[in-house]
Design brief:
mainly alpha; 3 helical TM bundles of succinate and fumarate reductases; disordered C terminus; 8 helices; globular; single chain
Length: 254
């Protein structure tokens, strides 16, 4: 008796899925990595963009903002606990995840693979840029915690180099993309947007939000190089004269 032969089930090779579960300690490490990308790193990014937006008001307004931030209580503790250490963990662990993962954008150009690859490269750009930016602006040259009104001139002098200007522009776009897509990933991984429809709609919102942040960042860069405030001195505040006019009640004795 002849038996019916069922055609072999075709093997579907998938690309890198955008959402992958981890096991054991890796699950906790990945959850921490995901959470830190939103709080406190994402919150700091928003604060940093808003603070830089003050540059559009001029060097003195920008210096006032830098002075305010450096005058916060326990600012150095806050700086390390909520900025430097979280960025180090998020960046280094992100690189480790990248080295262990694979993407198939050449053979399987699905959206998930392209987004995965873009997220990794923009993350690498972000960590390299942030590293050099912190070293150059925080620890080299004029010390801004002691001289906050020199902040505008310090950034302006750095952006006078066309190569550094290009670095700032590329990094700004990359960081805003990385954060916007990171919000989408966070919502999907933490169960905030269950289902494909919810994720798709939230994806549009994240894209619009990332575009808004990028525009704000690029606009802030324009404040330093646009020509409205050329050659700003290290202390743009007007000089205070020590010479006082004689009081009207004073009489001159002859």
């Amino acid at each position: 008796m002849a038996t019916a032969q069922h055609p072999a089930t075709p093997t579907v090779r998938k690309g890198v899925p955008p959402l992958r579960a981890a096991q054991g300690n890796e699950f906790l490490f990945r959850k921490l990595h995901s959470l830190l990308g939103i709080v406190p790193i994402g919150a700091f990014l928003l604060e940093h963009l808003l603070s830089n937006f003050e540059a559009l008001k001029g060097p003195i307004a920008y210096g006032d903002q830098v002075k305010f931030l450096n005058g916060l209580p326990l600012v150095r503790v806050l700086e390390w606990v909520f900025i430097f250490l979280p960025i180090l963990y998020h960046g280094l662990y992100g690189v480790w995840i990248w080295l262990r993962g694979k993407s198939n954008i050449v053979y399987y150009p699905w959206a998930g693979n392209w987004m995965y690859t873009a997220q990794r490269y923009t993350g690498l750009i972000a960590i390299l840029y942030i590293g050099q930016h912190v070293i150059r602006q925080r620890f080299m040259g004029v010390q801004l915690p002691e001289h906050p009104y020199a902040a505008f001139a310090k950034v302006q002098q750095e952006l006078a180099n066309p190569w550094m200007l290009a670095v700032y522009i590329i990094a700004m776009i990359a960081i805003c993309w990385h954060f916007a897509y990171g919000i989408w990933l966070f919502a999907a991984k933490w169960g905030i947007t269950p289902g494909e429809v919810a994720r798709k709609r939230f994806g549009y919102a994240c894209a619009a939000f990332g575009l808004l942040l990028a525009v704000m960042g690029l606009w802030s860069i324009w404040a330093f190089v646009g020509g409205k405030y050329p050659n700003v001195p290290e202390d743009p505040r007007p000089a205070v004269s020590l010479i006082t006019a004689p009081s009207p009640s004073m009489t001159v004795l002859g």
